[in-house]
Amino acid sequence: MKNLIVTIAIVVLASNIIVYQKDTCNLVMNMNQAKNVADEMARSAALCIDEKSLADGNIKFNKTTGKSRAKEAFGRYKSSFFSNVKYDIAFDDDSGTVKVTMNLGKANYSLAYLRNNKKLKTTSIYEYALPNL
Amino acid sequence: MKNLITAIASLVLIMTMLMQMTLNERNYTRMIAIDQLVNNFKEVAREEGLVSSANKSNLISEISGATGIGEKDITVSGTSSRVNRGGKISYKVSVKMDKIYTAPAFFGISKEKNEGRYVVENSTTSEYI
After folding, report:
1. Domain of A57?
2. Do B35 and A15 touch (CB under 8 A)?
3. Which of B8, B102, B125 best tests the A interface by mutation, with the highest count of A CBs <10 A?
4. Does any domain span residue A133?
5. Interface residue B39 vs chain A (CB under 8 A)
6. Do B31 and A29 lie within an 8 Å CB cutoff?
7. Is A45 contained in some domain?
8. pTM of the prediction?
9. pLDDT tens-digit readout, B42-97
10. For A53, B55, B89, B110, which has the most beta carbons within 10 A of its beta carbon?
């Protein structure tokens, strides 16, 4: 009986560790993926430059096209993790940068005692550089 | 004797779980490394405007070197014609993952069911001028 109780206790503990390990690794992978998605969105949006302004030597982003390109880039990632992710794009014509901020929500831990209210987010800033021709 | 038999049975079960933890860690580490290497590969493809054969073979050897997976078990494909700035470059990387569960014979899992493929399929925006 003593052996059985100890075994059950160890199995329960080990199961908890395996679930924690799976959740943590998924979280790390999703965070890395989110950073890549944010980079891709910022880059896609930053490549949409108003050609008329560029001809005058100024960088002015075409915000409408930029936002739709960023949305398209976001849509390429079909992982369920991104279904609840909210993002925000900020264009700065003066510095020639596009900033994408992603609010990833709370970490999705299966074990109730590990859940907390801390919200995760990731940011990517892309600076448009004029090509050296 | 009774205690010995139960202890052996318990130990086998516990050892299996411990080994599964280690195996999980190895598999997750592999997947994270593959993601990172594919990201580097994507950056090069973006600059070049295509998925070049040099970039492909570089990715294959890097994945093989970092994870220990044989080069023949890694396939890379993607846009092979040059795309100009703003265009889309598609790519697909597929890596065979073996030994997903530990002690498959103990749980009656066949070799075919104990392996799978980790696939990264996506596209990126070209910056080639």
Report:
1. 2-127
2. no
3. B125
4. no
5. yes
6. yes
7. yes
8. 0.82
9. 999 999 999 999 999 999 999 999 999 999 999 999 999 999 888 889 999 999 99
10. B89
